[in-house]
Amino acid sequence: MKRRNLLATAAMGLLLASGASFAQGMDKVKACFVYVGPIGDGGWTFQHHQGALAVQEKYGDKVEIQFQENVPEGADAERVLTQMALGGCNIIFTTSFGFMDATNAVAAKFPDVKFEHATGYKRDSANVSTYNARFYEGRAVQGTIAGRMTKSNKIGYIASFPIPEVIMGINSYYLHAKKVNPAVELSVVWAFTWFDPAKEADAAKALIDQGVDVIASHTDSTAPLAEAAKTNGAVIGFGQASDMAAYKPSPRVSSIIDNWAPYYIKRVGQLLDGTYEQADAWEGIAGGEVEIGEITEAVPAEVKAEAEAMRDAIAAGTYHPFTGPINKQDGTPWLADGAVAPDGDLLGMSFYVEGIVGDIPK
Amino acid sequence: MLRLEKRPTPSRFWLYATPPVAVILTMIAGGILFALMGKNPVEVIRTIFWDPLFGEFAFYLRGQLLVKAGPLILIAIGLALGFRAGIWNIGAEGQYIMGAVIGASVGLAVFPTESRWIFPAMVIAGAFGGWAWAMIPAILKTRFNTNEILVSLMLVYVAETILAKAATGFLKNPEGMGFPGSRNFSSYPAAQNAFLYEPLGLHWGGVAAFVTAILAYILLTRHQAGFQIKLAGQAPRAARFHGVSPARLVVMCMGISGALAGMAGLFEVTGPAGQITIDFNTGYGFTAIIVAFLGRLNPLGIVLAGFIMALTYVGGEMASTSLGLPDAAIQVFQGMLLFFLLAVDVLTNYRFRLAVGAH
Questions:
Q1: Which regions in chain A score pLDDT beneath 50?
Q2: What's the pLDDT score for residue A16?
Q3: With an 8 Å Cβ cutoff, is A97 touching chain B?
Q4: Does the beta-carbon distance from A69 to B67 stay under 8 Å?
Q5: Structural domain for A165, as ranges
Q6: CA of B343 to nearest chain A CA: how many angstroms apart?
Q7: Do A76 and A165 fall within a single domain?
Q8: B302-308: Cβ within 8 A, 24+ apart
């Protein structure tokens, strides 16, 4: 018998065992989480695990949580996912972009198990949903603070990889810094990593050497803040993924906190009460997925108020960080006056907005 | 008082007894570790070593063992040839990456042409990529007497940067909406390394691993080059008198191990991994060093060692998911294996003597 058939048989067994009462909801859900890093990374994976723990807290005995740390992409991810599906997981959250193909491959073999893939775009079968957060909304708040706080008029961004997610963040950060401070210049350093304290520290040093005094980062370690801390308050930065409160009140003057708990609680809850449907979720500040960490006293009260007003306007839906007129870097128009960027443009974003110097690595 | 005394000749008994003793000691020490963490040690050890072979999901996991062991065996055999001659290629991970990148480039360059020659050409390109990457430390060593351990290790990090460049740049999937990662080979049949027999997890990489093991065994036992390798490792001066050129040996051993690591990378990227991604490499090149020593630098021993190592990975994942063990505990467990191996290995060349009275 071919493995595929065996798996299908196993999946059928699960279907018969647990699926009969599916439409009416379930008495107990086994929710499983696949992590790309260790739960103690203090950033990306840590925040996902906090979400998993929140699900347990919320539903108690009705939920069983399983997770696997440090799962490499590719064949290993497929094996872990298959083991979880065979082991009776009802819903599996795969919490890194790199799990995209593995998630879709395994989902095709287990039609009765729900798969939720973070930050991806492939939903090849009906049991695959994707979810992400509108981090660029948080970047708008950071940009406002950066534009007001910089004394050298040079702000920096430690970028990870040249993908739409990151480019969106850079553009949002720059646009909102420029809005409050037209003289501002942005330097971008590409670190080509999501987590590498040594490389991130080097990137921060390079920026500081250029005279940059506000650094935002799209990488997950606290190394850039540690470098900023050595400047005796001359350079400030932001917490990324988690609050990084240890560097309060300065150099960490605010932060973007990834909060996955509301989404995880919602999806598991829907599975329990039978209202679960395939989704492509992209929530932001309004949905609670993107939290703005406390703006500290290192920021003057009026700047803090301005940044918080920006946050509240985005949350209320009265302001979209990408509202025209906005031109592309080469001067060609992108958004007309008053036009709001469609999600499709954002999800495929591969260009800088006008005013940013330098090229996106190809 | 116990003291260590050098044996006049290495013990044949301990030469073969070391690996099983090390595995048993790892189980005991690991069991104590797991017990201290509040887990049932017998259950954990059973989950790691027994369940993947005979447990509920063995029908699936048995195949996964070869998927995991194949690249380890292929790389470890190449490394073992060098290690025997005292040539330390620590950078197989980098050669593995370069094999995958160069081999994948050849396949993707002709996408979507269908021809039976594409996959063989990619395998050759993959072997070439690994070989070329290994030639850098080899030539630096023979020309400028640099240390091949440092150079080959440092080149791993260079290769990782090239890999990131490939995934986000020159090999990026043009239909991937700007996201990093190449096309997936599973949707390109001519370049795909599909399973030949799925229940066993056998693909061309597994076939290559077995064939290489046999060829390496013949090389070491029947061939002049194999004799030279062994001689150079055991008695470098005698090897010189015997007409062995150290430079040629370095180029040969680094070249073979690089080519095999490159091939392993190519089989992985076209098969189980499916595509070039930023984090394509998962440490096979480094783990293969443990496998080479666990297998006593003997090609047939390496085959066995590859499977044992694969077992600790596959079983370790099971233990981690189903019993809630932290991944770090599994890594410590795998590390113990090398530690005990090296510790017990002392007994091959030394023996304990009870020293009474004498000082």
A1: 1-22
A2: 43
A3: yes
A4: no
A5: 135-258+291-347
A6: 29
A7: no
A8: B302/B73, B302/B76, B302/B77, B302/B80, B302/B213, B303/B73, B303/B209, B303/B210, B303/B213, B305/B19, B305/B76, B306/B69, B306/B70, B306/B72, B306/B73, B306/B76, B306/B209, B307/B65, B307/B66, B307/B69, B308/B23
Give me the CATH number covering residue A211.
Answer: 3.40.50.2300
Domain boundaries, chain B: 67-301
Shortest CA distance from A77: residue in chain B = B273
Q: What is the pTM of this model?
A: 0.82
- Smallest CA–CA distance from B164 into chain A, residue: A192
Give the total number of structural domains in chain A: 2
| Token pair for A266 | 């919602």
pLDDT in the model for residue B117: 93
Whether residues B327 and A79 touch (CB distance < 8 A) is answered with: no
| Residue contacts between A and B (CB atoms, under 8 Å) | 117
Distance from CA of A14 to the nearest CA of B (A): 14
Which residues does A291 contact at the CB level (< 8 Å), separation at least 6?
A256, A257, A258, A259, A285
Same-domain pairing of A219 and A329: yes
Given an 8 Å threshold on Cβ–Cβ distance, is B321 in contact with A80? yes
Shared domain check, A235 and A318: yes
Q: What are phi and psi of A274, to 5 degrees?
A: 85, 15
Contacts of A98 (CB under 8 A, 6+ apart): A36, A73, A77, B181, B277, B278, B279
> ipTM greater than 0.90, yes or no?
no
Residue A70 with chain B: CB contacts under 8 Å: 327
Q: Are residues A96 and A177 in the same domain?
A: no
Note whether B317 contacts A80, CB cutoff 8 Å: yes
- Residues 314-333 in B contacting A (C-alpha not used; CB under 8 Å): 314, 317-318, 320-322, 324, 326-328
User: Rounded to an integer, what distance in angstroms lies between the CA atom of residue B267 and that of residue B275?
Assistant: 11
Closest approach of chain B CAs to the CA of A69, in angstroms? Answer: 6
Residue pLDDT tens, chain B, 359 long = 678 888 888 888 888 888 889 989 999 999 999 999 999 999 999 999 999 999 888 888 888 999 999 999 999 999 999 999 999 999 999 999 999 999 999 999 998 888 999 999 999 999 999 999 999 999 999 999 999 999 999 999 999 999 998 998 899 888 877 678 899 998 898 999 988 888 888 999 999 999 999 999 999 988 888 888 888 888 888 888 888 888 999 999 999 999 999 999 999 999 999 999 888 998 999 999 989 988 989 999 999 999 999 999 999 988 888 888 888 898 899 889 888 988 888 888 888 887 665 45
Q: Is B274 part of the contact surface with chain A (CB cutoff 8 Å)?
A: yes
User: Sheet harboring A114-118: ordered strands across?
Assistant: A63-68, A29-34, A91-94, A114-118, A128-133, A280-283
β-pair partners for A281: A131
Tell me if A87 and B57 make a contact (CB, 8 A cut-off).
yes
Q: Classify burial at A362, counting beta carbons within 10 Å of its beta carbon; exposed 0-12, middle 13-18, buried 19 or more.
A: exposed
